[in-house]
Amino acid sequence: MKTLVLNLREPELYRKHIETAAEALKRGELVAFPTETVYGLGVNRDNPMAVERVFEVKMRPEEKKLTLMIADREELKKHVGHISSAAQKLVDAFWPGPLAIVFPVSNGLDISIRLPDDAAARDLIRTAKVPVVTTSANLSGYPPATDAQQVFLDLGGKISIILDGGSTRFRSPSTIVKIVDAHVEIIRHGIIAETSIRSCLANTMAKV
Asked: How many domains does the chain have?
């Protein structure tokens, strides 16, 4: 497979490149794209074979779940029936931004959702008009990619498209939290410090 690298820093081609990548997602292809933290690897959640391919390409353990990335806060209600007051505080304080929140859905199941603070990522999701689940665009166990060159070294020849937006802003992964009965559990430490999360939930609105 030939991996197409599309430069988002060419203003006259930006929209065309976003549309090309969005169409690839609709077809079930794997697309890497920049966020404010690290590069993400996205796929159409409604295509089970494509989702399986993500795990194969990354050599990622199947028990590790993917994160649903959304483009607007309003989309949250489409995927989560009930949003606790604690979760709403975090959404209000840190979205869009480098925080993924694990929400309960039903029957003991849950879903990780993030609204990125990156225009290209949100434009891609809006244009694709399919649910986009993501993981970091690197081989499992390797450092996360913070530029398109790193993505290509790990995944070149294995995925369809890399959207090159240059180096990411934070160059470090997002924080992942889970809210259980108004208590917060840090699933992964990242850009947003645990102290900021807990201050927010204590009504001290500390934000990075």
From this structure: 1
Per-residue pLDDT of the chain (208 residues; tens, 9 = 90+): 999 999 999 999 999 999 999 999 999 999 999 999 999 999 999 999 999 999 999 999 888 899 999 999 999 999 998 899 999 999 999 999 999 999 998 878 999 999 999 999 999 999 999 999 999 999 999 999 999 999 999 999 999 999 999 999 999 999 999 988 778 899 999 999 999 999 998 874 444 4
Report yes or no on 183 lying in a domain. yes
The pTM for the full model equals 0.94
CATH code, 136: 3.90.870.10
End-to-end CA separation in angstroms for the chain: 40
- List, in sequence order, the alpha helices (H) in the chain: 14-26, 48-58, 76-79, 85-94, 119-128, 148-155, 194-201
Element (H, E) at 40: strand 40-44
Dist CA 23 CA 205 (whole Å): 39
The residue assigned the tokens 């966020």 is 35
Report yes or no on 208 lying in a domain: no
Which residue range is the domain that position 168 belongs to? 4-201
